[in-house]
Amino acid sequence: MLSTDTVLDRATHLLGRRFGGTPELTHPEDLGGSSDSLVLRAKVTPNPFLQQRSVVIKQLPALAEGTPPEAEANAAMIREVVAYQYTNTLPSENRPGPLLLAHDIDERIIVLSDAGTGESFADILVREDAAQRASALRKLGRALGRMQVATADGEESFDTLNRRQYTRHGLPLGQVGERDVDVAALVTQGLDLLEGSGVEIPDAVVDFAREAGHRQQRSSLRAFTPFDLTPDNIMLSDQVVFLDFEWAGFRDIVFDVACVIAGFPHDISTPLLDEDEANEFIDAWASEVVSVWPEVRDHHQLTEALMTSLIGWTLMSLSLLYHGTLAVIAGADTPTDGARQLDRLPETHLADFATTVESVRRFATTAATSATGADAGRDGSDTLGRYTRVALFASSLLERLAELGAVPQTRSRLRSR
Questions:
Q1: Source organism's superkingdom (predicted)?
Q2: What domains are there in the chain, each with its CATH number?
Q3: With contact defined as beta carbons under 8 Å apart, do 181 and 324 qualify?
């Protein structure tokens, strides 16, 4: 890992080249970082060329030149940089995250505006004050909806920025889409992992799973989404700020909503939202996006979309927990005997997965209870029966996970510790 002084020198050079002058960065504060990354906050000595009084510097680890991992890592960094470049163009009230001030793909460094010192949702969602949690979740729902409305027609611009960066850094344009999350393939991997563990999967769940993959391409509800939401990367200050765009892109917006009500898959720092909290969040989000996507007013359509997305997240999160990445694993759909078993997952991963499964059980149970006869027959399918079968499947899977010592992370369980 590079030293703090080296990273500050690199950032100073980038900012000077971008804005002019010779900015001075002082008082570095280590904000932590994943793996070998270094994330710093530094103060900026006042100068006429740069308005910011503090910046955040993200230094990614170096990779061996000319290797496949380097090409993949550069593509990943380009996607993150493009996400910031794209959101920089949005009005400040709709901008979801910090401003990109400077970057260098070759040096693997990004300099961002400082989003401040608000409170993360990882802290907010473990509070005992239900009113404060509900208020924060409403703000999160509205912020997510405003961002999606503001970017509803921006996919072509995002793709153009992506292609420019690929051309600039000598990457094949044919690989532009390869960094995107292949939901269909990840869902298939999740199904494979369950089947390899001897879990019986009813047709209703398989149908929802297949639809989860199809929605990413044919859904009319498409906009810019962070996708990989985690509570420690969402901050509440004067407004809601999203801090991580590593997997951002244009996708079905309902998946972001499902990610929140699923308890943020692959995160165990916060408990699953209860039903009232989930409804507060969904209603706040829907109130923002209804002007562009009036179909969210249709309870039947929205329930179907959320059920589909929740099952999609359940299976994707299982694949992520098992393989450690949102990238598709080559050959993962051809397991060897006994190679893929739930009991091979660490206890914390099993508890995380159980929490996501519990969100499916709750949602399907409520949907089956509230479905009307008109809902059940309007599309020629047994909608009410499908929700019931999904709820029974989730209950059965939870029993299997409980045998392995895994129970959902719920608020009542958090209180009992």
A1: Bacteria
A2: 4-113 (3.30.200.20), 119-416 (3.90.1200.10)
A3: no
